[in-house]
Design brief:
Number of helices: 5
Structural class: mainly alpha
Largest sheet: 2 strands, antiparallel
Shape: globular
Strand content: 5-15%
Distance between the termini: 61 Å
Radius of gyration: 21 Å
Length: 159
């Protein structure tokens, strides 16, 4: 959360920012989600609300939910008078999505934004399944030396 005094020094200086910048410099598929406290969520040094849904949705661990499922969840949350993160959870576990969503599908960004709406940076524009691998950028500092054992280690000969 933006008010996490353990890892955030300012709006532009934080451990997550530094890690994201290095991921991008090395050409990786960087994803940075900056959550902010709200009237209903104190924030601090804690995981976001509906944490596992964020992990599964962001990393594309499972097949993404359909557009119909997304639309149904968004409508359900919008119709609720509960705090958004609670309405999101209630809509997922209630009967309002029955027959519309595949059990265990990965929530889309639009679905998760109904729980909490973080400031999002996606280095390759991907949320969910990984973006295609990119060539090594000129900003990369990492280098791998060729292995002296081309083809892998050779087993010791029997004596």
């Amino acid at each position: 959360y933006s008010n996490d005094a353990v890892v955030v020094a300012s709006d532009t200086e934080s451990h997550p920012d530094y890690m994201y910048e290095m991921l991008v410099a090395e050409g990786h598929d960087g994803r940075l989600l900056r959550f902010s406290p709200t009237e209903h969520v104190a924030g601090g040094h804690k995981a976001p609300q509906n944490e596992l849904d964020w992990v599964i949705g962001c990393l594309g661990v499972k097949e993404q939910c359909s557009a119909a499922c997304e639309e149904a969840l968004v409508s359900c949350v919008d119709a609720s008078s509960s705090a958004s993160h609670l309405a999101y959870r209630d809509c997922l576990v209630g009967d309002s999505l029955a027959g519309t969503c595949t059990t265990g599908c990965a929530p889309t960004k639009a679905m998760l934004d109904k729980s909490e709406a973080p400031q999002t940076s996606l280095s390759l524009g991907a949320f969910g399944p990984a973006a295609a691998p990119q060539p090594r950028p000129s900003t990369s500092l990492c280098q791998q030396s060729p292995s002296p054992q081309v083809g892998g280690p050779t087993p010791a000969s029997p004596t």
